[in-house]
Amino acid sequence: MERLGFIGLGIMGQGMAANLVGAGHEVHIWNRTQSKMETLVERGAVAETSAAEVARHSELIFICVSDTPDVEEVILGEEGVLIGAHEGALVVDMSTIRPSTAQALSQRLEREGLHMLDAPVSGGSEGAAAGTLAIMVGGDQDQVDRAMPFLTAMGNRITHVGGPGHGQMAKMVNQILVVGHALAMSEALLFAQAGGLDLDKTLEAVSGGAAGSWMLSHRGPQILDRDWRPGFTIDLQQKDLRLALEQAEDMGVPLMGTSVIHQLYGTLQQAGLGGEGNHALIKALERLAGFEVGDDATSA
């Protein structure tokens, strides 16, 4: 069995790496914040001192970090994966980054005798912990087959969508849909509140029909409880939307709704709410409406 490496133990990576360890794999880990490795070490993972050291001890190296520059640094930096990786090693980047960067990194690693897949994920921290993520994979079929036994420990829907960079393009599609659903949910709950409906019963009534969505089922109840703990933060959501809007501009594709949502999230960041869950989008609309969901004074 090939030895595994995992770099990046944040809100998503922690659960993903834990599932690899739990499946019985030898997993070498590294994270810039050392304390985030402690729980996994207690469960059997091996802590390393750098990304390069992870690569030296691994045949497959998984990466899940915040943004495009972070991935470039982890792979190409002075203590990066490229310094320590053995010929034939496979790098699986599960971050969300620019598709063009994913393509360029894949080409660079191939020239060095290495392989790469871009495999961003969706499903929030709950999906990462439960091993039920949706994983969108770009790269060569042979390498997808090689990674599949390990991807299935982290997700229950793995789709090979195309060549290098196509996983990232599919993730952009995913994020456009996610925030669109978040806006629709926010507007609908405000409408229900103003109309005097019982919000719990309304949520139950609509979640199982044509209006149902993952966002509504998972984040709707959190909104009603005024629970802003993140499955995915506003700051990370904004980063993904920025990437989607940049890509859309390059392709000449209009994303009017996504652009408006990006601006609404921006007002929440300015208010210091960037660390809250992306379902806190409703707070921007509540400020415009002049009332909050759960405020009995607004009921008709």
Structural key phrases:
300 residues, six-stranded parallel beta sheet, elongated, 52% helix, 14 helices, 2 domains, alpha/beta, three-stranded mixed beta sheet, N-(1-d-carboxylethyl)-l-norvaline Dehydrogenase, domain 2, Rossmann fold
- Number-wise, the strands total 9
Would you give the CATH topology of the largest domain? Answer: Rossmann fold
Q: What is the count of helical runs? A: 14
Distance between the termini: 63 Å
Q: Helix and strand string, N-terminal first?
A: EHEHEHEHHEHEEHEHEHHHHHH
Strand order of the largest sheet: 3-2-1-4-5-6
Radius of gyration: 20 Å
Estimate percent helicity.
40-55%
Plain-language structure description:
- Helix 2 links the parallel strand 2 (27-30) and strand 3.
- The chain has 2 domains: 4-163, 3-Layer(aba) Sandwich (Rossmann fold), CATH 3.40.50; 169-294, Orthogonal Bundle (N-(1-d-carboxylethyl)-l-norvaline Dehydrogenase, domain 2).
- The protein is of the alpha/beta class and 300 residues long.
- The protein starts with a strand and ends in an 11-residue tail after the last helix.
- Helix 1 (13-22) runs parallel beside helix 7 (124-130) and helix 10 runs antiparallel to helix 11 (214-224).
- It is 52% helix and 13% strand.
- It has helices at 13-22, 38-42, 51-56, 68-76, 81-84, 99-111, 124-130, 141-151, 166-194, 199-207, 214-224, 234-251, 256-270, 281-289, and strands at 4-7, 27-30, 46-47, 60-63, 90-93, 115-118, 121-122, 133-138, 155-162.
- The model has no long low-confidence stretch (mean pLDDT 96).
- The relative contact order is 0.10.
- The protein is built from 14 helices and 9 strands.
- The strands form 2 sheets. A 6-stranded parallel β-sheet has the order 3-2-1-4-5-6, sandwiched between helices.
